[in-house]
Amino acid sequence: MRKFAAIATALALGTVSSVAMADDGNFFVNANAGASSYNTSNPFSGMEGNSFSKTGKAGALRAGYRWNSVVDYGVEVGYGFLGNTTARLAGERASARLQDQTRGWLLGGNLNYNINEHWYVDGRAGWFRARSLYEARFLPDPLSASGRAAVTRTGEYFGIGGGYDFNKNFSLGLAYDTYRVPENEYNKNTRIGMYSFQAEYRF
Known about the structure:
mainly beta
C-alpha cells in the first residue's frame, strides 16, 4: 500500500507541476462525509438471535488540480474510509461476531460542469487500492476459532455529484461513489457504495 501511495502521489504531483503554470486552473481539496453500504448478505441469516449491519460511517479526502474549460477536468489523489459490516449471533452459551472493514488510497481524474454561475454537476473515476480487514470473534473465545486477516487489492471507483458554488473558492453538494473491491478468499463482496455530503475548497 505504501508503494501504491508513493506512485499515486508522484504521478499526480508530476502531472500538476508540468502543466499547472501554463494553464488556467485551481488546486483543490475535496472532503466527503456520509455512510457506506456494502453489497453483501448476512452470514448468519436464518439463525436465531442474529443481527446484521451493512452500513457505517464513511468518508474520503482528496486533493488535486483542475484545469478550466467548457467542462473542467483534473487529477486527484486521496484516501477513503468505507466503514464496515458487522454480523452478530447471540446464544445462551456463546456468541459470535464477524466484521469487514475497508479503506484505501485513491488515484484518478475528475470532471466538473457549471450549469450556471452557482450550480454544478461533477464526476470522478480512478483506481482504489483497498485494504480490507476481516475479523472473527467467538465467545467463549477458543484460540483456534477467532482471528484477523488483512487483504490488499486494487479495484476502481466511480462517482457523481452536484451542488452549489457559494463563490469561486468554496462549494457544498451531495455525492454518490461506488468502489470495487476484488473478491478474495474471505469475501465475495465486490461493491461498496457511499452516499455523502461533499465540500470543496479551491485556491
